[in-house]
Design goal:
The protein starts with a helix and ends in a 6-residue tail after the last helix. It is flat. It is built from six helices and 33 strands. It has a domain of about 90 residues: Udp-n-acetylmuramoylalanyl-d-glutamate--2,6- Diaminopimelate Ligase, Chain: A, domain 1, CATH 3.40.1390.10. The strands form five sheets. Strands 6-7-10-13-16-21-24-27-30-32 form a ten-stranded mixed β-sheet, with no helix packed on it. The chain has a nine-stranded parallel β-sheet with strand order 9-12-15-20-23-26-29-31-33, with no helix packed on it. A seven-stranded parallel β-sheet has the order 8-11-14-19-22-25-28, with no helix packed on it.
Length: about 325
């Protein structure tokens, strides 16, 4: 869509070439010359974003910090404009139609509903009531269980198992509040990529990225009832036990082992070779390999912070106190 058209829809002031043709929305992490990037904060401005973006959507205040000449759309409320922009570029998949794939490993009673432009490799097997939406790519030797939904644009490598009830590529929990404190959903334009030799247990949910992709690297094994949110990257050879929740934009290192019912908050990064004990809550980056445990009884957050602070100082306190006299 031409920048002039976008400016009218977004009610934005246009500076630059009105005939610039935006092919897609890009994140500030991966800008490119065919896209429009959105800058919401001053600390997201960098030379790379300015030089490599075809156009930028931002506020008047932030634009004052940009010295270079660039195609730009100026708005007062960047969050509202961002939602409109994502809706403009959001793909609307067709309704999958019932079909039958022959020469597969499934029994004759299996059924599959498939969208447009789907590519499937050799030795594909599937259960009953499988839904595969538009533009999905599936490699060789893939098994998909009963009642699985593979949403549009998903890429699945070779030798992958996706067990019963999984949903891969649904939109994540991306929401923003407007000035009236009403939640508005952010459309998700990214996809899900599952590399070779991965295994997903039953009833897992892997959300598509907001703009960039959610990525599950090679040889990752995931237990039942695991939720992986938008834009998460899982390092290769990682194992994730049941009922784990990983919030948006986390980057999990290689060869991690994550115990059951672990919760990881958004934007956390873990080192390679990290083990997280079951039921732990991860609220900060884990920068070194090793075993981590974070289990505390629930309490008011203000009290919890004070308790956590003292726990981290227990070693120093013990050195100052003669333990034998206590």
């Amino acid at each position: 869509m031409k920048l002039q058209e976008l400016s009218l829809i977004l009610e934005a002031k246009l500076e630059g070439d009105p005939n610039f043709n935006c092919q897609k929305v890009a994140s500030v992490a991966y800008p490119n010359k065919d896209s429009i990037s959105v800058i919401k904060k001053n600390n997201k401005i960098s030379d790379e974003v300015i030089v490599n973006s075809g156009a930028i959507l931002t506020t008047y205040d932030i634009a004052n910090s940009i010295n270079s000449k660039i195609n730009i759309l100026l708005v007062n409320d960047v969050e509202t404009a961002f939602i409109k922009l994502l809706n403009i570029f959001k793909y609307q998949p067709s309704i999958p139609q019932s079909t039958q794939i022959y020469n597969n490993l499934s029994n004759d009673h299996s059924s599959i509903f498939m969208g447009k432009s789907v590519s499937i490799g050799k030795n594909f097997s599937y259960g009953a009531n499988v839904v595969i939406e538009d533009n999905v790519t599936i490699g060789n030797d893939v098994f998909i269980g009963n009642n699985v939904v593979i949403c549009h644009g998903t890429i699945i490598g070779n030798n992958v198992i996706i067990d019963h009830g999984c949903i891969v590529g649904s939109e994540g929990f991306g929401n923003v509040r407007n000035e009236k404190k009403i939640w508005r959903h952010l459309p998700h334009l990214g996809n899900v990529i599952i590399k070779d030799s991965c295994s997903l247990g039953a009833n897992c949910c892997i959300d598509r990225g907001t703009i960039d992709d959610t990525l599950i690297n090679r040889h990752v094994v995931i237990d039942n009832l695991v939720h992986i949110a938008h834009n998460v990257v899982i390092g290769e050879k990682t194992a994730i036990a049941a009922k784990v929740g990983i919030a948006g934009s986390c980057i999990i290192g290689k060869r991690n082992m994550i115990g059951g019912m672990v919760g990881i908050i958004d934007h956390v990064k873990t080192s390679d070779d990290v083990t997280i004990s079951a039921t732990s809550t991860v609220t900060k980056n884990l920068k070194e390999p090793g075993v981590y445990t974070g289990i505390m009884p629930i309490s008011k957050h203000s009290l919890w912070k004070r308790i956590a602070l003292w726990i981290t100082k227990l070693d120093k306190i013990a050195k100052l106190i003669d333990i034998k006299k206590i």
